[in-house]
Amino acid sequence: MAAITSQVMATLPQPVDDRSMTTITSSFATSTRAGSSTAGHRLRTVLTVNAATSLAAGVGGLAATDRLVDWLGLQSPGWTRLVSVGLIVFAVDVALGARSPRRLALTALATSVADLAWIVATVVVLATVDLTGAGRFVAVAMAVAVLDFAALQLWFRRALLAV
Predict the structure, then answer these.
(1) d(CA 3, CA 129)
(2) What is the pTM (predicted TM-score) of this model?
(3) What does the pLDDT look like over 119-149, one tens digit per residue?
(4) 6: buried, middle or exposed (CB in 10 Å: 19+, 13-18, 0-12)?
(5) How far apart are CA 145 and CA 65, in angstroms?
(6) Burial state string for 94-128 with b = 16 or more CB within 10 A and e = fewer than 16
(7) Whole-number Å distance between alpha carbons of 134 and 71
(8) Handedness of CA 94, 96, 98, 104 (dihedral sign)
(9) Domain residue ranges of the chain, discontinuous segments joined by +
(10) Cα separation of 140 and 40, whole Å?
(11) 90, 110, 128, 143: which sits with the fewest CB atoms below 10 Å from its CB?
């Protein structure tokens, strides 16, 4: 039996030297790091855009509270101010988390959970508040955008952790 095994082994190609294995391993490690870098870059980009749009909505909400209350059919300027300040705090937190490579995956998860909570809150508002047509349109459009952010963040987070 040993003779057959050595005959079979003799027909297999043998590496010329140890460097061929090093090259294969090195090449795999480089492509793994490159995949991680790409997923990390894309995740960081989505988080940054999420933070920028949240900051813009928060600052815009504070700057135009009275006009928004009338246009959207909201009951109180206080809620608009509270949500606007919350968006600004959220934006700063997301932007800072996106800058840290060690916290990137955790930031993406926490941000996605917050984004999904925003969508649930939007559904509650649509069901309980008598918004104008423009108010309903803005609420749905923002919820769709936030859902897109959540999906992309979870997608790129998974890609980052899979590498």
Answers:
(1) 84
(2) 0.76
(3) 999 999 999 999 999 999 999 999 999 999 9
(4) exposed
(5) 21
(6) bbebbeeeeebbebbeebbebbeebeeebeebeee
(7) 7
(8) negative
(9) 40-162
(10) 29
(11) 128
